[in-house]
């Protein structure tokens, strides 16, 4: 006897060759309902870089504005110290005819150079201190921070210069000579002959801040050499 022939299944119930091949190629994760979605190339790096770049441009600009104001206000202390520590330049008045003449009492004295030198040394010290303070406030650095430090230092120098001149002796030397009398020594107005000293604070702050940031600032972690996106070395 021959075995009964089984009729073939209807066409709509036959498994297609494409579905069989795709089922064979399906990964175990897909079979368990845990399909992985491969991220686009560079997505992880962009995300990591976004979190490592800092708090954001708005926050950096806000911090830079605060630092500019705080550093500039330090010029008040610089002006007070300059007025207090700067040497006095002695002047003397005399009468020539009906006019008063004022001249230096010590023509070979170095008091005028000492006035500029005192301002420069104090400004360098303020630049170093402000750079260290800003670095401790925000260690990551950044362009807005450096610009704020330089602008604040320059504004602080200008404020100290004008404040020291305002607190110093009277600027009208003829009136001062008439007031004290003929042949009496009186101090010259406090002034800054070398205007380049105004740049001592911002330049010192810039150099010191860049130096300590390069030496002690945080560094971005580097990925291990040769690792792929899933922790495996890529095939050659």
What is the topology?
Layout (H helix, E strand, L loop, with lengths): L16 H8 L3 H4 L11 H10 L4 H29 L4 E7 L2 E6 L6 H27 L5 H25 L5 H8 L4 E3 L12 H17 L20
Antiparallel strand pairs: 1-2, 1-3
Helix pairs in contact: 4-5, 4-6, 5-6, 5-8, 6-8
Descriptive notes:
The chain is mainly alpha-helical. The chain has a domain at 58-88 and 110-169 and 191-216. The protein has 8 helices and 3 strands, in the order H-H-H-H-E-E-H-H-H-E-H. It has helices at 17-24, 28-31, 43-52, 57-85, 111-137, 143-167, 173-180, 200-216, and strands at residues 90-96, 99-104, 185-187. The protein has a 3-stranded antiparallel β-sheet, with helices on one face. Mean pLDDT is 77; it is low at 16-36 and 38-53.
Labels describing this entry:
single chain, mainly alpha, three-stranded antiparallel beta sheet, 8 helices, 7% strand, elongated
What's the quick description here?
With 236 residues, the protein is mainly alpha-helical. The protein has helices at residues 17-24, 28-31, 43-52, 57-85, 111-137, 143-167, 173-180, 200-216, and strands at residues 90-96, 99-104, 185-187.
Protein structure class? mainly alpha
Count of discrete alpha- or pi-helical segments spanning 4 or more residues: 8
The helix content is 40-55%
User: What is the succession of H and E elements?
Assistant: HHHHEEHHHEH
Q: Can you summarize the main beta sheet?
A: 3 strands, antiparallel
Compute the average pLDDT. Answer: 77
User: In whole angstroms, how far apart are the ends?
Assistant: 62 Å
Give the beta-strand count. 3
Strand order of the largest sheet: 2-1-3
Query: Outline, from the CA principal axes?
Result: elongated
Q: Output the radius of gyration.
A: 38 Å
Beta-strand content estimate: 5-15%
Low-confidence stretches: 16-36, 38-53
